[in-house]
Structure formats: structure tokens, C-alpha cells
Amino acid sequence: MKLSVFLFLSLLSGTLAAQPRDYGQAFTVAIWDNTTAPHSNGLTTPETESETDRIAGTSQAEMYVFPAAQEQATGQAIVICPGGGYTHLCMDYEGYDVAKWLASHGITAAVLKYRMPNGHPEVPLEDAEQAIRILAGLEAGATGFTARQVGIMGFSAGGHLAAMTSTMAPRTRPAFSLLFYPVITGEEGRSHRGSFDNLLGADRTREQTLRYSLENCVDNLTPPALLLLSDDDRVVPSISSTRYYDALKAHGIEASMHIYPVGGHGWGIRDDFRHKDEWQAALLDWLAHRAEKTER
Prior knowledge:
By secondary structure, the protein is an alpha/beta fold. It contains eight helices and eleven strands.
């Protein structure tokens, strides 16, 4: 991965954000610096950030890049979509802490600060797809940076965004998706109502809800997926993940799913999650398998 070349060209082209937040990233990329975002989320108030690394009301998209050391690089890069119910972003245990861990294992990671939908579902989808295209070297300002595989990872509502990018992105889909306790279905009583209300608006119709229930959107272009969740999750019922898994298998798409007996919702890379070592080993093994298939 020619990260030094990418960084140099990004500086020349103005892709780097002027005053990035400091999460320990190597550099920060403004998602729409080289072109105008197709749609706006209509938010006019400044975004806010708490001391606990929660960003709310985002209306400017950027990603924080944690490159793998060149001697360790697997050729894979991952866009990370933190959760937060489509109102805010949990930037630490579902963001930069995960990115640092991935980078330490040879996988370049970019934490995406995507725009909140505010009833405009196309907005975060545009951000996620553009982030993938930047990491894949498909957009101006990223020349010289290459990755054989660019995947996407998402947590909770960020998992919905990752799955939405895997099923609905019109130009470029990720090579794979890693979905942690994702919001998938919008069916009443089997979903996280707040995420769907924030995505589509509280006055959403049944047709809109079905349209963005992503088990209905899987097609033959949807990439392989790894799903990780807890059986006792009371925030996002496990049926969200099992429906997506079933839809993938109905289309002959490779998928793996790990359902841990306890943990509830929102554990991310927190040390107090009992099965942290297990999910990390499972994820690295699954990614190694994807890398091997690409090399064949």
C-alpha cells in the first residue's frame, strides 16, 4: 500500500481536512473535498462532541485513517461506521480503538464520521460509498493508494449503514462487510425503532420501512458478510442478523455468523465483553480467508 504517496498527493489536492480531530490517526480525509455531496441532510446547527467521544449532529463527512505498517499490510482496508442510532457516533470503542487494533494486524482502517440522515437515508449511504471509493483509489486525490480489498465494518446503526452500502450503493460496493449487532429490519417489535425513525423520519410509511429493511435488498452483487452479535441483545433483536444471513444464503453468498450467549448490545471492542478474544480471533480468521480467496 503506497500510503506515503497517497498522503503526499492528498496534501497537494486539498483532500486532507484542515483541522482534524486528533484520535491518533495518521491523517484525516474530507469525504467531499474534491466534489460536492449529491444531497444534504438539512442540518444547519454545528455538530457537537462530548468528552466521551460522542459526536452528534454531523453534517460534514470525513474519515480518520489508521494505516497498517507496510511490512505487515495484508492488502485489505476497511471503512468503519460507528453506531449511535443515526443521531450520534460512538467514536471510541466502535471507532478509533477498533481501527488501531486492525492496523496493528496489518489492516488499514478508516473511521468514517458520516453525516446523520435526519430523515434523508441517501446521505450516509453517499458518504460510505465515497469513503470506499477513496480508499480504493477510484476518486480524485487518492491516486497512488491501492488496496486489493476494501471492505466495510459497522456497529448497530453503523451496521445498518454498512449493510445498506453492501446492498444499495449504486456505483461501488465493498468487497466484504463485517456487521456487529446490526440494525437490519424495520419490522415493528423486531427492530430498533429510533434508528429507523432517524433514518427515514418518524412519519415514515410502511413502504419506506420495507425498502430500508435490508434483508429485502440483498441481491447477487451483495458481498460476503461476517455477523457478530449476542443472543441476549434487547436493543436490536438477533432476528435482524439472522434475517440478513438467511437472505445472503438464499442468494448463494458466503456468510458466517457468531452469536455469543451474553453481552447485550453495544460492546464493540470493550474489554469487559466476555467474548472479546473470541470475536477478534474469528474476525481475523475470516479476513485471512477473504485475502486467500482474492490471491487465488
